[in-house]
Amino acid sequence: MTDAPSYGFDTLQIHAGARPDPATGARQTPIYQTTSYVFRDADHAAALFNLQEVGYIYSRLTNPTVAVLQERLATLEGGVGAVCCSSGHAAQILALFPLMAPGCNVVASTRLYGGTVTQFSQTIKRFGWSATFVDTDDLDAVRDAIDENTRAVFCESIANPGGYVTDIRTLADVADAAGVPLIVDNTTATPYLCNPIAQGAALVVHSTTKYLTGNGTVTGGAVIDSGNFDWSASDKFPSLSAPEPAYHGLKFHETFGSLAFTFHGIAIGLRDLGMTMNPQAAHYTLMGIETLSLRMQRHCDNAIKVASWLEQDDRVDYVTYAGLPSSPYYERALACYPKGTSGLFTFAVKGGYEACIKLVDALDIFSHVANLGDTRSLIIHSASTTHRQLTPEQQEAAGAGPNVVRISIGIEDPDDLIADLDQALTKACG
Ligand SMILES: *Cc1c(COP(=O)(O)O)cnc(C)c1O
User: Which of 12, 21, 70, 405 has its CA 20 to 30 A from that of 78?
Assistant: First the structure.
């Protein structure tokens, strides 16, 4: 497809980044199952290694199948470039890597995916980085948390799993005023429901494992660069603004302009950290994205039906879904996420921990798994699984208390989902 940003989302999700294969005319994007690429001659090889020419060297860095996915994601998110990698957690490290140094911190929302809370509160300490967690609805608290060593603000657009939606625009303004980029994890919303870049985010990260692939086949991640952040405005981001010793003193921002972050992500991030996406994974994710808008709309439509049914049921204490008028985030959801608030929410079962365990075992259509964003409906009792490593306070803050289950509503017949929940609640609550 020629560059035509005026095409609509449904067209771009199928065509962006892809064109008939120049060698064979293959209409579907081939899986370039190769580790390396023959150089035209020694000069060509040298130019590629010096970053003077863009091309394929080795699949730890770039691969043509993965490149199509990168361009498609950059287009759908309204960014200038994207770097794909092996998982959503890898994407978070890849996003932070060019920004951080020992002693630096990220100011992160308390409402994050459980694995991200663990990664940020524990693992990144080993790099000498740290995270300060704040309630991102309290903008003064965010401003207070940002200090001279802060290098990013991090949030999720629709937070997993608590039925919370972030007002990205106001948070982006706070980050901007402090001269640091806002990074938004857009996994739960996907670019169909939310475009963080249009609302001021500098970088977007994804677990492509979830809705983007949509069928539970492969793990993957991506960082999408808005191209809008001025890395040279201060001396906070020397990896991008100062001479890079590993490339003969090249300055990424000066040399690559708005693509500085993307080039750094590949030339330093993937080269030295090596969390590369493989071409098979890119293929499955490209297949998934072709139907993203259709699936997401159905996920949203099913979720509101199931959430409304649960909310009126006596065996259920409460349902946290931003699409319900009872949600404290309902008005914000209408304003910021007009197409819907995805297929993920939690509900509290009156029988507590024990009833939750019985419920997940009694369901027939819903699978008890640690995934979300599949065509299939999924359920998990977060407190005994994904959020186990968190303290009780962190569990509550993340909306994952012992009496709470998280469901990821699939695209099945909604009446079947309701009937399944009905019979399982009967067994769980006796
Ligand atoms: C799953 C998930 C991640 C982590 O992604 P993986 O692909 O499992 O590494 C990060 N953020 C959110 C919101 C997620 O749902």
Answer: 21
